[in-house]
Amino acid sequence: MHKIERKKLYLKELEKHSFITMTDFLDTFEKEGIKSATIRRDLKELEVTGAITLTFGGINVNIGNENQVKDNVVNKNLDKKHKIALKANEFLEDGDMIYCGAGTTIEEFVTNISKTIRLLVTNSLSVLQKQ
After folding, report:
1. Using the 8-state DSSP alphabet, how is residue 120 labeled?
2. Which helix (H) or strand (E) holds 59?
3. For a FRET experiment, which of 35, 66, 108, 121 has its CA 20 to 30 Å from that of 16?
4. 25-39: b (≥16 Cβ within 10 Å) or e
5. pLDDT tens per residue, the chain (131 residues)?
6. Alpha-carbon distance 124 to 128, whole Å?
7. Spatial CA neighbour of 89 closest among 120, 107, 114, 124
8. Is-contact 35 6, C-beta < 8 A?
9. In this structure, is the dihedral angle defined by the CA atoms of residues 87, 92, 93 and 94, taken in order, positive or negative?
């Protein structure tokens, strides 16, 4: 089974719980023929995305609200992100062409652009939507 398919299965199961023990979770998917080492590796990747938090012996689920994780990241250190955005804007001049990567600090930067930008290139849909 492909990693994406496995993660979809995991998330479907996790949506039923706010907390599940690691033993119960592993048992559920080992019955599907997925090895525990693979499950643990996939769970670490899900933790990086913010969908879950791994604890000693269990999994806390953060996906009750699809936007909750994104909102938590956006609102974390918002005052610092705003200060960084304002400072970065001081370096802009009218007619500049800029490249912006992805990230919530970049979203704050793009939101606060006060100059006329000739071209903004980005690899992030959320940054593009803020402009």
Report:
1. E
2. strand 58-61
3. 35
4. bbeebeeeebeeeeb
5. 888 889 888 988 888 888 899 999 999 999 989 999 999 999 999 888 888 899 998 998 886 555 555 666 667 788 999 999 999 999 999 999 999 998 889 999 999 999 999 999 998 888 888 77
6. 6
7. 114
8. no
9. negative
Q: How far apart are CA 52 and CA 1, in angstroms?
A: 21
Backbone dihedral region for residue 37 (phi beyond 0: left; psi -120 to 50: alpha; all else: beta):
alpha
User: Would you say the C-alpha torsion 129, 124, 12, 25 has a positive or negative sign?
Assistant: negative
Which 8-state DSSP code applies to residue 122? E
Rounded to the nearest angstrom, the gap between the alpha carbon of residue 54 and the centroid of all alpha carbons in its chain is 16
pTM given for the model? 0.49
DSSP state of 61: E
3-state secondary structure of 109: helix
Residue labelled with tokens 């879950």? 52
Instruction: Provide the 3-class DSSP secondary structure of residue 65.
Output: coil
SS (H, E, C) 66-104: CCHHHHHHHHCCHHHHHHHHHHHHCCCCCCEEEEECCCH
